[in-house]
Amino acid sequence: MSRRRLGQLEAEVLAVLAGSGDFMSTSQVCSELDGDPAYTTVNTVLHRLHDKGMVERRLRGRAFVHRLAVDESGLAAERMFGHLRVANDPSSVLNQFVHGLSESEAAALRAILDGPPEEAT
Question: Which parts of the chain fold into alpha helices (H)?
């Protein structure tokens, strides 16, 4: 089994929870992750994500179940902003990102950029 960086495992756990849309036990999350991660590792990640306010949890029987507590698209956008903020050359990062998009992703980006600006909520 290859070892993941903790941030990568956090992102994968968040993606599993986002895909479910419902409360999941630690063992259910584990079964959806690639590479057979240890139950205790996933449980620790879930607790850390709860402490960060990204996951809500509820007691079911004697164990916690978890679900995503944040908007997935906002979460991904914030990670992207974080990378841009620390880059020496943000324009180069954006250039690399845009040129790595598939045709459908590029078309979606074009439609967003060409459309009316969204109002802040």
Answer: 6-20, 26-32, 39-51, 72-86, 90-99, 103-114
